Amino acid sequence: MSIRHLFPLLRRLGPVAALTLAACAPAPIYKAAPGTLAALPAQVAQSPEQYGQGDVIWGGSVISVHNFPDHSEVEILAYPLDTSQRPLPNTHGAGRFIAVYPGYVESFNFPGGALITVSGKLNGNRAGMVDQAAYVYPLVSVAQSHVWTAAELRQGHPDVHFGIGVGVGIR
């Protein structure tokens, strides 16, 4: 059978394969309210007055945890989220923000570099420093948060590859 004869078959199977792979993707973990902001933390940091106290669903990589007498703060390097609201760490950072939790959080549960998604409400901003540079951190009062496990990050990403040719994979 020549390759030219395979094209009609591939054209019919393509949509089925796409739907099958899309069905593997997990659903978002948080339901976005009708007014949920689509702005990234870097955009909010540049003009915080424009965004008020809107709802956000942001995620990224944990940088640090600080506990205070009545609340805890987790500094996060933001990344865009996929359709399941998992941070995409292989993309460019989208700014930084501080997730504010009522009470005490155990820093062990938020290890440096862990990927996290938070849902909450913007609650102002704070001037700070990133190394020697001045920075404005949007503050998010956290309603819900989720630290992603390695298994959850792999879920919905089938190890299926299509192609013509020879390949060698080493893991």
Automatic annotation (TrEMBL):
InterPro entries to which the protein is assigned, alphabetical: OMP_Slp (IPR004658)
Keyword vocabulary terms for this entry: Lipoprotein, Signal
Signal peptide residue numbers: 1-32
PROSITE patterns, sorted: PROKAR_LIPOPROTEIN (PS51257)
Name this protein carries in UniProt: Slp family lipoprotein
Keyword Lipoprotein: yes
Pfam families tied to this protein: Slp
Organism superkingdom: Bacteria
